[in-house]
Design a protein that fits this description.
The complex is a heterodimer of chains A (about 300) and B (about 160). By secondary structure, chain A is an alpha+beta fold. Chain A is about 35% helix and about 25% strand. In chain A, helix 5 runs antiparallel to helix 8. The two termini of chain A are about 35 Å apart. By secondary structure, chain B is an alpha+beta fold. Chain B folds into 2 domains: about 5-85, Ubiquitin-like (UB roll), CATH 3.10.20.30; about 90-155, Orthogonal Bundle (DNA polymerase, domain 1). Chain B has helices at about 30-35, 90-100, 110-120, 125-135, 145-155; strands at about 5-15, 15-20, 55, 60-65, 75-80. In chain B, strands 2-1-5-3-4 form a 5-stranded mixed sheet, with helices on both faces. In chain B, a hairpin with a 2-residue loop joins strand 3 and strand 4 (about 60-65). In chain B, helix 2 crosses helix 5 (about 145-155). The chains are: A alpha+beta (about 300), B alpha+beta (about 160).
Protein backbone atom coordinates (compact mmCIF):
# COMPACT_ATOMS: atom_id res chain seq x y z
CA UNK A 1 0.00 0.00 0.00
CA UNK A 2 1.27 3.43 -0.91
CA UNK A 3 0.28 6.82 0.42
CA UNK A 4 -0.15 9.62 -2.09
CA UNK A 5 3.11 11.43 -2.82
CA UNK A 6 4.26 14.04 -0.33
CA UNK A 7 7.30 16.05 0.67
CA UNK A 8 9.02 15.21 3.94
CA UNK A 9 11.05 17.35 6.27
CA UNK A 10 12.13 17.27 9.87
CA UNK A 11 11.76 20.03 12.44
CA UNK A 12 14.24 20.18 15.30
CA UNK A 13 12.20 22.57 17.45
CA UNK A 14 8.55 23.49 17.96
CA UNK A 15 9.18 26.96 16.54
CA UNK A 16 10.75 25.49 13.41
CA UNK A 17 7.79 23.12 12.97
CA UNK A 18 5.31 26.01 13.16
CA UNK A 19 7.39 28.03 10.70
CA UNK A 20 7.63 25.16 8.21
CA UNK A 21 3.91 24.44 8.42
CA UNK A 22 3.15 28.09 7.78
CA UNK A 23 5.43 28.10 4.74
CA UNK A 24 3.97 24.89 3.36
CA UNK A 25 0.35 25.95 3.74
CA UNK A 26 -2.89 24.22 4.69
CA UNK A 27 -2.25 21.01 2.78
CA UNK A 28 0.82 20.17 4.88
CA UNK A 29 0.45 18.07 8.02
CA UNK A 30 2.50 17.43 11.09
CA UNK A 31 3.55 13.86 11.93
CA UNK A 32 4.64 12.56 15.34
CA UNK A 33 4.07 8.84 15.98
CA UNK A 34 1.94 8.52 12.87
CA UNK A 35 -0.13 5.62 14.19
CA UNK A 36 -3.42 7.28 13.22
CA UNK A 37 -2.24 9.53 10.40
CA UNK A 38 -0.30 6.90 8.44
CA UNK A 39 -3.22 4.42 8.21
CA UNK A 40 -5.39 7.29 6.95
CA UNK A 41 -2.72 8.12 4.36
CA UNK A 42 -2.40 4.49 3.33
CA UNK A 43 -6.18 4.30 2.88
CA UNK A 44 -5.98 7.65 1.02
CA UNK A 45 -8.44 9.19 3.46
CA UNK A 46 -5.68 11.72 4.08
CA UNK A 47 -3.30 12.99 1.40
CA UNK A 48 -1.15 15.78 2.85
CA UNK A 49 1.12 17.59 0.40
CA UNK A 50 3.95 17.48 2.93
CA UNK A 51 4.76 16.01 6.32
CA UNK A 52 6.69 17.94 8.94
CA UNK A 53 8.17 15.35 11.29
CA UNK A 54 8.29 16.70 14.86
CA UNK A 55 9.85 13.56 16.35
CA UNK A 56 13.03 15.52 17.07
CA UNK A 57 11.38 18.77 18.17
CA UNK A 58 11.50 18.04 21.90
CA UNK A 59 12.59 15.55 24.56
CA UNK A 60 9.96 13.09 25.78
CA UNK A 61 9.84 14.60 29.28
CA UNK A 62 7.42 13.72 32.09
CA UNK A 63 7.55 15.94 35.20
CA UNK A 64 5.45 16.70 38.25
CA UNK A 65 5.22 20.45 38.77
CA UNK A 66 3.03 21.97 41.52
CA UNK A 67 0.63 19.04 41.59
CA UNK A 68 0.35 18.82 37.81
CA UNK A 69 1.79 16.18 35.53
CA UNK A 70 3.56 18.09 32.76
CA UNK A 71 4.20 16.08 29.64
CA UNK A 72 5.88 16.90 26.37
CA UNK A 73 3.38 16.31 23.58
CA UNK A 74 5.90 13.82 22.19
CA UNK A 75 5.64 11.47 25.18
CA UNK A 76 4.77 8.08 23.77
CA UNK A 77 2.17 5.66 25.09
CA UNK A 78 4.98 3.27 26.04
CA UNK A 79 6.58 6.04 28.14
CA UNK A 80 3.30 6.54 30.02
CA UNK A 81 2.86 2.78 30.43
CA UNK A 82 6.16 2.39 32.30
CA UNK A 83 6.36 5.65 34.24
CA UNK A 84 6.09 5.40 38.06
CA UNK A 85 5.41 9.14 38.21
CA UNK A 86 2.39 8.67 35.92
CA UNK A 87 1.13 5.59 37.81
CA UNK A 88 1.27 7.45 41.13
CA UNK A 89 -0.23 10.73 40.02
CA UNK A 90 -2.54 10.05 37.08
CA UNK A 91 -3.07 6.27 37.29
CA UNK A 92 -5.88 6.33 34.72
CA UNK A 93 -3.25 7.14 32.08
CA UNK A 94 -1.47 3.91 32.94
CA UNK A 95 -4.75 1.98 32.80
CA UNK A 96 -5.85 3.62 29.56
CA UNK A 97 -2.65 3.33 27.52
CA UNK A 98 -2.58 -0.42 28.05
CA UNK A 99 -5.84 -0.60 26.10
CA UNK A 100 -4.57 1.38 23.12
CA UNK A 101 -4.01 -0.61 19.93
CA UNK A 102 -1.16 -3.05 20.44
CA UNK A 103 2.46 -3.04 21.60
CA UNK A 104 3.66 -1.62 18.28
CA UNK A 105 1.13 1.21 18.18
CA UNK A 106 2.00 2.08 21.80
CA UNK A 107 5.67 2.15 20.87
CA UNK A 108 5.18 5.03 18.40
CA UNK A 109 1.92 6.79 19.30
CA UNK A 110 2.14 10.05 21.30
CA UNK A 111 -0.13 11.79 23.80
CA UNK A 112 -0.10 15.01 21.76
CA UNK A 113 -1.07 13.10 18.66
CA UNK A 114 -3.92 11.36 20.43
CA UNK A 115 -5.31 14.68 21.72
CA UNK A 116 -4.85 16.47 18.38
CA UNK A 117 -6.35 13.70 16.27
CA UNK A 118 -9.92 14.10 17.49
CA UNK A 119 -10.87 10.41 17.45
CA UNK A 120 -14.02 10.15 19.63
CA UNK A 121 -13.11 6.64 20.83
CA UNK A 122 -9.56 7.55 21.88
CA UNK A 123 -8.73 6.75 25.49
CA UNK A 124 -6.37 9.59 26.43
CA UNK A 125 -8.71 12.55 25.71
CA UNK A 126 -11.35 10.89 27.90
CA UNK A 127 -8.88 10.54 30.80
CA UNK A 128 -7.57 14.08 30.27
CA UNK A 129 -11.09 15.56 30.34
CA UNK A 130 -11.94 13.77 33.60
CA UNK A 131 -8.79 15.29 35.13
CA UNK A 132 -9.53 18.79 33.85
CA UNK A 133 -6.30 18.74 31.81
CA UNK A 134 -5.16 21.37 29.36
CA UNK A 135 -2.77 21.58 26.43
CA UNK A 136 -0.37 24.27 25.35
CA UNK A 137 -0.61 24.95 21.64
CA UNK A 138 1.89 26.88 19.54
CA UNK A 139 0.89 28.46 16.24
CA UNK A 140 1.71 31.35 13.92
CA UNK A 141 -0.08 33.69 16.35
CA UNK A 142 1.83 32.48 19.39
CA UNK A 143 1.10 30.16 22.30
CA UNK A 144 -2.21 29.57 24.06
CA UNK A 145 -3.64 27.16 26.61
CA UNK A 146 -6.73 25.10 25.72
CA UNK A 147 -8.75 22.91 28.08
CA UNK A 148 -8.82 19.37 26.67
CA UNK A 149 -12.61 19.44 27.14
CA UNK A 150 -12.72 22.29 24.59
CA UNK A 151 -10.41 20.58 22.09
CA UNK A 152 -12.47 17.93 20.22
CA UNK A 153 -15.42 19.14 18.14
CA UNK A 154 -16.38 16.36 15.73
CA UNK A 155 -14.67 13.13 14.66
CA UNK A 156 -11.15 14.15 13.53
CA UNK A 157 -11.94 17.85 13.99
CA UNK A 158 -10.58 19.88 16.89
CA UNK A 159 -10.47 23.54 17.86
CA UNK A 160 -6.76 23.70 16.99
CA UNK A 161 -6.21 26.31 14.30
CA UNK A 162 -4.49 25.56 11.03
CA UNK A 163 -0.76 25.30 11.63
CA UNK A 164 -1.18 25.10 15.40
CA UNK A 165 0.58 22.34 17.33
CA UNK A 166 0.12 20.84 20.78
CA UNK A 167 3.51 21.14 22.49
CA UNK A 168 2.71 20.28 26.11
CA UNK A 169 -0.01 18.58 28.12
CA UNK A 170 -0.73 19.45 31.76
CA UNK A 171 -2.84 17.09 33.85
CA UNK A 172 -3.77 17.85 37.48
CA UNK A 173 -2.55 14.94 39.62
CA UNK A 174 -4.92 13.09 41.95
CA UNK A 175 -5.19 14.93 45.27
CA UNK A 176 -5.41 13.49 48.77
CA UNK A 177 -8.73 11.70 49.23
CA UNK A 178 -9.19 11.11 45.52
CA UNK A 179 -9.28 7.86 43.60
CA UNK A 180 -9.80 7.12 39.92
CA UNK A 181 -10.73 4.34 37.53
CA UNK A 182 -10.72 4.05 33.74
CA UNK A 183 -12.79 1.34 32.06
CA UNK A 184 -13.38 0.52 28.44
CA UNK A 185 -15.38 -1.98 26.44
CA UNK A 186 -14.13 -3.00 23.00
CA UNK A 187 -14.97 -6.04 20.93
CA UNK A 188 -11.43 -7.35 21.18
CA UNK A 189 -8.37 -6.02 23.03
CA UNK A 190 -6.95 -3.11 21.06
CA UNK A 191 -10.06 -2.51 18.95
CA UNK A 192 -11.69 0.91 18.92
CA UNK A 193 -13.63 1.37 22.14
CA UNK A 194 -17.42 1.11 22.16
CA UNK A 195 -17.58 2.92 25.51
CA UNK A 196 -14.86 4.69 27.54
CA UNK A 197 -15.45 5.80 31.11
CA UNK A 198 -13.01 7.81 33.25
CA UNK A 199 -14.11 8.48 36.83
CA UNK A 200 -12.51 10.46 39.67
CA UNK A 201 -14.13 10.58 43.10
CA UNK A 202 -13.11 12.44 46.25
CA UNK A 203 -14.10 10.73 49.47
CA UNK A 204 -13.81 11.81 53.08
CA UNK A 205 -12.35 9.51 55.74
CA UNK A 206 -15.61 7.58 56.28
CA UNK A 207 -16.05 6.99 52.53
CA UNK A 208 -18.67 9.63 51.76
CA UNK A 209 -18.31 11.11 48.30
CA UNK A 210 -17.57 14.85 48.36
CA UNK A 211 -16.79 15.36 44.66
CA UNK A 212 -17.21 13.36 41.46
CA UNK A 213 -15.77 13.91 38.00
CA UNK A 214 -16.72 11.76 35.04
CA UNK A 215 -15.86 11.70 31.34
CA UNK A 216 -17.34 9.48 28.63
CA UNK A 217 -15.81 8.62 25.27
CA UNK A 218 -16.70 6.73 22.09
CA UNK A 219 -20.44 7.36 22.43
CA UNK A 220 -20.98 10.49 20.36
CA UNK A 221 -18.97 12.72 18.07
CA UNK A 222 -16.51 13.64 20.82
CA UNK A 223 -15.53 12.68 24.36
CA UNK A 224 -17.49 14.69 26.93
CA UNK A 225 -17.42 15.78 30.54
CA UNK A 226 -20.44 14.06 32.13
CA UNK A 227 -19.79 15.16 35.69
CA UNK A 228 -23.03 17.13 35.90
CA UNK A 229 -25.15 14.00 35.44
CA UNK A 230 -23.32 12.23 38.27
CA UNK A 231 -23.80 14.80 41.06
CA UNK A 232 -26.39 12.77 43.00
CA UNK A 233 -23.38 10.76 44.21
CA UNK A 234 -22.11 13.70 46.29
CA UNK A 235 -22.99 13.18 49.93
CA UNK A 236 -23.52 9.44 49.47
CA UNK A 237 -21.43 6.37 50.21
CA UNK A 238 -20.34 4.88 46.88
CA UNK A 239 -21.98 1.49 47.26
CA UNK A 240 -23.66 -0.73 44.69
CA UNK A 241 -27.05 0.98 44.83
CA UNK A 242 -25.68 4.52 44.63
CA UNK A 243 -23.23 3.73 41.82
CA UNK A 244 -25.88 1.92 39.78
CA UNK A 245 -28.34 4.75 40.20
CA UNK A 246 -25.73 7.25 38.99
CA UNK A 247 -24.77 4.90 36.16
CA UNK A 248 -28.38 4.89 34.93
CA UNK A 249 -28.67 8.66 35.28
CA UNK A 250 -25.45 9.28 33.34
CA UNK A 251 -26.30 6.75 30.64
CA UNK A 252 -29.81 8.16 30.27
CA UNK A 253 -28.36 11.62 29.83
CA UNK A 254 -25.60 10.64 27.38
CA UNK A 255 -25.74 11.54 23.71
CA UNK A 256 -25.11 8.27 21.89
CA UNK A 257 -24.66 8.34 18.14
CA UNK A 258 -24.85 5.49 15.64
CA UNK A 259 -21.95 3.04 15.53
CA UNK A 260 -20.95 0.10 13.38
CA UNK A 261 -19.96 -1.78 16.55
CA UNK A 262 -23.30 -2.01 18.32
CA UNK A 263 -26.68 -0.32 18.61
CA UNK A 264 -27.53 2.72 20.70
CA UNK A 265 -29.60 0.82 23.29
CA UNK A 266 -26.86 -1.71 23.89
CA UNK A 267 -24.21 0.97 24.33
CA UNK A 268 -26.48 2.90 26.69
CA UNK A 269 -26.84 -0.22 28.80
CA UNK A 270 -23.08 -0.84 28.74
CA UNK A 271 -22.51 2.80 29.71
CA UNK A 272 -24.72 2.44 32.78
CA UNK A 273 -22.85 -0.70 33.87
CA UNK A 274 -19.38 0.70 33.18
CA UNK A 275 -20.07 4.02 34.94
CA UNK A 276 -21.27 2.14 38.04
CA UNK A 277 -18.19 -0.09 37.99
CA UNK A 278 -15.83 2.82 37.40
CA UNK A 279 -17.31 4.79 40.31
CA UNK A 280 -16.90 1.80 42.65
CA UNK A 281 -13.40 1.24 41.27
CA UNK A 282 -12.52 4.89 41.89
CA UNK A 283 -13.93 4.67 45.45
CA UNK A 284 -11.83 1.54 46.11
CA UNK A 285 -8.80 3.34 44.70
CA UNK A 286 -9.46 6.32 47.00
CA UNK A 287 -9.59 3.93 49.98
CA UNK A 288 -6.35 2.24 48.88
CA UNK A 289 -4.56 5.52 48.38
CA UNK A 290 -5.76 6.78 51.77
CA UNK A 291 -4.42 3.55 53.31
CA UNK A 292 -1.13 4.06 51.52
CA UNK A 293 -1.44 1.01 49.29
CA UNK A 294 1.20 1.35 46.59
CA UNK A 295 -0.11 0.75 43.09
CA UNK A 296 2.63 -0.57 40.82
CA UNK A 297 3.13 0.83 37.34
CA UNK B 1 0.95 19.49 -7.48
CA UNK B 2 3.51 18.28 -5.03
CA UNK B 3 7.09 17.91 -6.05
CA UNK B 4 8.58 15.09 -4.04
CA UNK B 5 12.26 14.60 -3.63
CA UNK B 6 14.22 11.44 -3.05
CA UNK B 7 15.88 11.06 0.30
CA UNK B 8 18.86 8.90 1.14
CA UNK B 9 18.49 6.77 4.23
CA UNK B 10 21.27 4.85 5.93
CA UNK B 11 19.94 1.83 7.75
CA UNK B 12 21.42 -1.30 9.24
CA UNK B 13 19.29 -4.32 8.41
CA UNK B 14 20.10 -7.46 10.38
CA UNK B 15 23.57 -6.10 11.07
CA UNK B 16 24.31 -5.09 7.47
CA UNK B 17 24.63 -1.34 6.78
CA UNK B 18 22.87 -0.12 3.63
CA UNK B 19 22.26 3.23 1.93
CA UNK B 20 19.03 3.50 -0.04
CA UNK B 21 17.33 6.26 -2.03
CA UNK B 22 13.65 6.47 -1.11
CA UNK B 23 10.57 8.51 -1.94
CA UNK B 24 8.83 9.85 1.17
CA UNK B 25 5.72 7.74 0.53
CA UNK B 26 7.64 4.45 0.55
CA UNK B 27 6.78 2.55 3.73
CA UNK B 28 9.45 0.79 5.75
CA UNK B 29 7.62 -2.43 4.88
CA UNK B 30 7.92 -1.84 1.13
CA UNK B 31 11.52 -0.72 1.54
CA UNK B 32 12.36 -3.99 3.26
CA UNK B 33 10.43 -6.19 0.85
CA UNK B 34 11.26 -4.57 -2.47
CA UNK B 35 14.48 -2.60 -2.03
CA UNK B 36 16.39 -4.31 0.74
CA UNK B 37 15.94 -8.00 -0.02
CA UNK B 38 13.95 -8.80 3.10
CA UNK B 39 10.74 -10.43 1.80
CA UNK B 40 10.45 -12.36 5.07
CA UNK B 41 8.63 -9.26 6.35
CA UNK B 42 4.99 -9.85 5.34
CA UNK B 43 2.20 -7.43 4.44
CA UNK B 44 -0.99 -8.29 6.30
CA UNK B 45 -3.57 -5.56 6.80
CA UNK B 46 -1.43 -2.51 5.95
CA UNK B 47 -3.23 -0.52 8.66
CA UNK B 48 -1.34 -1.46 11.83
CA UNK B 49 -3.95 -3.87 13.13
CA UNK B 50 -2.59 -7.36 12.45
CA UNK B 51 1.07 -7.31 13.53
CA UNK B 52 2.18 -9.38 10.55
CA UNK B 53 4.78 -6.82 9.40
CA UNK B 54 6.41 -6.46 12.82
CA UNK B 55 10.11 -5.62 12.77
CA UNK B 56 12.35 -4.38 15.56
CA UNK B 57 13.35 -0.74 15.05
CA UNK B 58 16.32 0.02 17.30
CA UNK B 59 15.23 -3.00 19.32
CA UNK B 60 11.57 -2.03 19.72
CA UNK B 61 8.65 -3.54 17.80
CA UNK B 62 6.91 -1.43 15.16
CA UNK B 63 4.41 -2.00 12.39
CA UNK B 64 6.65 -1.59 9.34
CA UNK B 65 3.52 -0.64 7.37
CA UNK B 66 2.97 2.45 9.57
CA UNK B 67 6.48 3.88 9.40
CA UNK B 68 7.80 5.67 6.33
CA UNK B 69 11.25 4.56 5.23
CA UNK B 70 12.40 8.18 5.24
CA UNK B 71 11.79 8.27 9.00
CA UNK B 72 14.26 5.50 9.88
CA UNK B 73 17.50 7.14 8.72
CA UNK B 74 20.27 6.01 11.07
CA UNK B 75 18.23 3.20 12.63
CA UNK B 76 18.87 -0.49 13.11
CA UNK B 77 16.24 -2.90 11.86
CA UNK B 78 15.91 -6.54 12.80
CA UNK B 79 13.68 -8.85 10.80
CA UNK B 80 12.92 -12.44 11.77
CA UNK B 81 15.87 -13.50 9.63
CA UNK B 82 18.13 -11.51 11.91
CA UNK B 83 17.39 -13.99 14.69
CA UNK B 84 18.95 -16.79 12.69
CA UNK B 85 21.91 -14.89 11.33
CA UNK B 86 24.19 -17.93 10.98
CA UNK B 87 21.48 -20.03 9.39
CA UNK B 88 20.80 -21.82 12.65
CA UNK B 89 17.32 -21.39 14.06
CA UNK B 90 16.89 -19.24 17.14
CA UNK B 91 15.59 -21.28 20.11
CA UNK B 92 12.25 -19.47 19.88
CA UNK B 93 11.94 -20.39 16.20
CA UNK B 94 12.75 -24.00 17.12
CA UNK B 95 10.09 -23.90 19.84
CA UNK B 96 7.51 -22.79 17.25
CA UNK B 97 8.51 -25.81 15.16
CA UNK B 98 8.45 -28.22 18.10
CA UNK B 99 5.02 -27.07 19.30
CA UNK B 100 3.36 -26.60 15.90
CA UNK B 101 3.04 -22.88 16.66
CA UNK B 102 3.16 -22.15 12.94
CA UNK B 103 0.71 -23.47 10.36
CA UNK B 104 0.51 -21.38 7.19
CA UNK B 105 3.41 -19.34 8.57
CA UNK B 106 2.29 -15.92 7.44
CA UNK B 107 1.93 -14.43 10.92
CA UNK B 108 4.96 -16.27 12.28
CA UNK B 109 7.68 -13.63 11.68
CA UNK B 110 5.65 -11.00 13.53
CA UNK B 111 4.68 -13.43 16.30
CA UNK B 112 8.27 -14.48 16.88
CA UNK B 113 9.71 -10.96 16.90
CA UNK B 114 7.01 -9.68 19.25
CA UNK B 115 7.36 -12.65 21.60
CA UNK B 116 11.16 -12.42 21.65
CA UNK B 117 11.11 -8.67 22.35
CA UNK B 118 8.60 -9.14 25.16
CA UNK B 119 10.41 -12.04 26.80
CA UNK B 120 13.75 -10.23 26.55
CA UNK B 121 12.18 -7.53 28.74
CA UNK B 122 9.89 -9.72 30.84
CA UNK B 123 11.67 -13.09 31.14
CA UNK B 124 9.19 -14.33 33.78
CA UNK B 125 6.01 -13.25 31.94
CA UNK B 126 3.11 -15.62 32.62
CA UNK B 127 0.74 -16.91 29.97
CA UNK B 128 -1.78 -14.10 30.51
CA UNK B 129 0.91 -11.44 30.12
CA UNK B 130 2.18 -13.15 26.98
CA UNK B 131 -1.37 -13.30 25.67
CA UNK B 132 -1.73 -9.55 26.18
CA UNK B 133 1.63 -8.79 24.55
CA UNK B 134 0.69 -10.90 21.52
CA UNK B 135 -2.93 -9.71 21.38
CA UNK B 136 -2.16 -7.46 18.42
CA UNK B 137 -0.64 -10.27 16.34
CA UNK B 138 -3.42 -12.00 14.47
CA UNK B 139 -3.23 -15.67 13.46
CA UNK B 140 -6.02 -17.21 11.39
CA UNK B 141 -4.81 -20.83 11.67
CA UNK B 142 -3.67 -21.95 15.07
CA UNK B 143 -6.23 -20.61 17.53
CA UNK B 144 -3.20 -19.22 19.43
CA UNK B 145 -2.97 -22.10 21.93
CA UNK B 146 0.04 -23.68 20.25
CA UNK B 147 1.69 -20.32 19.73
CA UNK B 148 1.46 -19.63 23.46
CA UNK B 149 2.68 -23.18 24.17
CA UNK B 150 5.73 -22.51 22.00
CA UNK B 151 6.46 -19.15 23.61
CA UNK B 152 6.12 -20.62 27.10
CA UNK B 153 8.39 -23.53 26.18
CA UNK B 154 11.03 -21.04 25.03
CA UNK B 155 10.61 -19.02 28.24
CA UNK B 156 11.08 -22.21 30.33
CA UNK B 157 14.01 -23.53 28.26
Amino acid sequence: MYAAAFDYLRATSWAEAVKRLEELGDEAHVIAGGQSLVPMMMLRVAAPSALVDIGGADERTIDLVDGRLVLSALVRHVDLEHSELVAENVPMLTQAVRQIGNVRVRQRGTIGGSLAHGEPAAELPCVAIAHGASVHALGPDGEREIAVADLPLFPMVTTLNSGELITRVEIPALRDGQGSCFLEIARRPGDFAMVNVAAIVTCDADGTCTEVRLALGALGSRPVDSSAAAQELVGAAIDEAASESVGRAVAGDAEIGPSSHAGVDYRREVTAVLVARALRGAAADARDRRAGVKVAA
Amino acid sequence: MTVTTQHTVSVTINGRPTDLAVSPNLSLLELLRTEAGAPEVKLGCGEGVCGTCTVLLDGEPVNACLVFAVQVDGCEITTVRGLAADGELHLLQQAFLDHAGSQCGFCTPGMILTAKWYLDRHPQADREELRRALAGNLCRCTGYTKILDAVEAYRDR
